[in-house]
Amino acid sequence: MSSVLAVGRHRLIGVRDGTFFMPTDFLGDEEAHRELADPDGTVRLPIGAFLMPGEEPLLIDAGLGPGYPRPDMMTGGSLLDELDAAGVRPDDVAHLALSHLHPDHVGWLATKRGGITFPNAQVYLAAGDWEHFLEEEHAGLTPWTRQALRDLAERGRVTILDEERQIVPGVTALPAPGHTPGHTVYAVHDGPERALLLGDSIYCPQQLTEMDWGAASEVDPVLARRTREWLWREIEGSGATAVGQHFPGLRGGRVLSKEWQPVRA
After folding, report:
1. pLDDT tens sequence across 137-190
2. Residue 113's domain spans which residues?
3. C-alpha 205 chain-centroid distance
4. Distance between CA 38 and CA 208 in Å, rounded?
5. Hey, which bits of the chain come out as E strands?
């Protein structure tokens, strides 16, 4: 069952594309692994995205997609079925906001055989990631995803973000670099109600109280920690709900008295 988070008049639906099998040392501390592990000792975190339905549906991140070559590490492919269950077809998606350009967040942007998945969507991503993955061509993007982004940009379908910016009413992009150069957190807001979609700036709720736990995939660990510290202050100080694309159950929570408190659906 998909998770649902209400933010004032807005509704966010957590949609799952697959599973990330987190290695023992991924967060740099075996305690992190123990806290997240299933009874068999394996950590299975969702590969998720978030849908804000409506007249112009917004999708935040695009999962891993099918056919990932390392199924022992990550599996994907369920996103379109999850969207369909929510009443949204790929052609309906009007806005696609990307937290960053790692493969488990852009996998359905385009597929090797199917081409561009969301042909009518305006794509939002940060300048730092465009430069890192598209211009400098660092590893991480498949050739067909890189080409799709270039084709979409030529058609005016890519909006490059270089500062805090509202992308649609009620959704603001916040620079949150470190995990990647242009990593972006999206704030969904309506009056005093606020939720932060954390992408991979924070992989699991435990990182909000354990600042030394940094992900092995961070491009700049020092900057990534600084971003986590800023997010911790933001979440606790504002009372915002927060959820990451790999949080168990894709369920959000709040930081209260330096402890993570899940929010009931």
Report:
1. 998 899 999 999 999 999 999 999 999 999 999 999 999 999 999 999 999 999
2. 3-262
3. 14
4. 21
5. 3-7, 10-22, 43-52, 58-60, 74-75, 95-97, 110-111, 115-116, 122-126, 158-161, 165-168, 171-175, 184-190, 193-197, 241-243, 253-256, 259-262
Where residue 143 sits, what CATH number does that domain have?
A: 3.60.15.10
Structure tokens at 43: 């950590």
The structure's pTM equals 0.95
d(Cα 34, Cα 256) in Å, to the nearest integer? 23
Q: What percent of the chain has pLDDT over 90?
A: 82
Total of domains in the chain: 1
Rounded to a whole number of angstroms, the distance between the first and last alpha carbons of the chain is 11
> In whole angstroms, what is the distance from residue 117 CA to residue 181 CA?
25
- CA–CA separation, 249 vs 227, rounded Å? 24
Other Cβ atoms closer than 10 A to 198: 28
For residue 128, give Cα distances in angstroms to 104, 110, 149.
18, 21, 15
Measured over the CA atoms of residue 103, residue 107, residue 109 and residue 112, the dihedral's sign is positive
Percent of the chain with pLDDT over 70: 96
